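Final report, closing paragraph on structural work. Over the funding period we assembled a curated collection of sequence-structure pairs, and we close with a single example.
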Amino acid sequence: MSDKNNSVATSITSEDVRAYLEAFKTKSILVVGDVMIDSYMWGKVNRISPEAPIPIVSVSNSESRLGGAANVALNIKALGAVTYLCSVIGTDYNSDVFKQLMAEKNLSTEGIICNSGRKTTIKTRIISGSQHLLRVDDEIDTSLDQKTSDELVGRIEKICKEKAIDLIIFEDYDKGVLSEYNLSRLIEFAKAAGIRTAVDPKRRNFSFYKNVDLFKPNHKEFCEGLKCEIPKDDFSLLSEQSQQFVSSSNIGMLLLTLSEHGVFISNGKESKSFPAVIRDIADVSGAGDTVISVAGLLLCSGASCQDIAFLSNIAGGLVCEKAGVVPIDPQSLLKEFNNE
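Its predicted structure, as stored:
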């Protein structure tokens, strides 16, 4: 990597991608964080309600999918790694739906804690044609009580010891599962155990992820976390701020997603940017989940900073071509390099 911040190409080949995909199959990954159900209702709008100036949607189809940290687990599983998931959900009707969805995807529920004081988050999207009309979030975002937090930490440590975990991904959707209290314990535990750590953060816990190996905020989260304004295309200022942040937080590398401007990566000394690939965008939901999944697997497979940024950028763009929250298809990723 160079200390210049111009966007760069990479010499990665289809053989390199195949080698990484094979390496992924040897990894065991634990995803920790806020899980949810992504519910979709599709229909047509033919008239306006007589009760209020709002459209009436005649529902033709509906579906529930795993979301949040559970979608990261699906991405990891789709990429071939052994996958475990730890989180806290409620004891409500939606908790049964969530566990059934996990069973359908052959994901173990041994890391899922059911707590009567919590609610199972469900996000319902109402869609007509290609237009999102409404999203309804049914959730609570208070932090876990200490007893439940201790139970979660204990469950995570047990799985790490029994399953020979290579990487812990902290997937923070700001719903209260992750907190300063349990993060400090878990990061310290991972360091002592030689387990790598990767983070997809939110603002509330932004400063509690010191000493992790990979930190992946989006542009908004990074600016909010640092309490500053940085234009997405000002790579000189991004480099300056990222190097200071990586150094002060003792983070291995920062991978910053910049939507239409691609991604930016820094290890505290050097930085690079990679432009977004032009695509037919159907839905950006879940793109960040795919980026952290691919980046985390590449990290524990010994990939360079350049390859981590380049491949995760490609993968995040690919899922944007699909409607709704979906995991990455490894063959689609490989196909990107077959015509090199």
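The chain is about 35% helix and 25% strand. The first strand starts at residue 28 and ends at 33. We thank the funder for supporting this effort.
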